[in-house]
Amino acid sequence: MRLSPIAVALSFALATVSSVGHSQKPDDQINPRSLALLQQGEAARKAGNLVGANDLLESALAVDPRNRGAFVALGRVAQAQELPGKAIRFYREALALEPNDLAALTAQGEALVQKGAVDRAKANLARIRTLCKAECSQATELAAVIAKGPPPAVVTAQAGPTVVPPKGQEPPVKP
Fold this sequence. Notes:
Blueprint: H1 4-23, H2 32-46, H3 50-63, H4 68-80, H5 84-97, H6 102-115, H7 118-132, H8 137-148, H9 152-159
């Protein structure tokens, strides 16, 4: 008699926990409509229709927010639009779903170089090399982008404004 309430509580807890696991889809099953929209978005991006690609890829994420390929593709669209900060955010979303995604790490590294954050891109390269164990194409690709460096406009913007002293005065010394 004294164990009856405990047995009832345990059986209720077990029934609740076991029913939760049956209603969820595994992470590796992406909605087929989302995958189809991803393919259409990639085709639009390759054709140069960045606005159409963006719309299709956002639709793919609306259908299934676990589609990390759509996040990577949206990042590539943002890079093509010269919006590296936005691209980095999309790659971060993809890496939140799968931290070891080599395509997302490589693309994020490229966007970081495009933004001028070469040291952070080097951290991505080190992580890619750790994941690959041997030389892989992603590491080679990112190393080449890092070696090339950020675009000239980014380097100039990071250097700061040029101070032109009035005539007859020495330029100020930076600390």
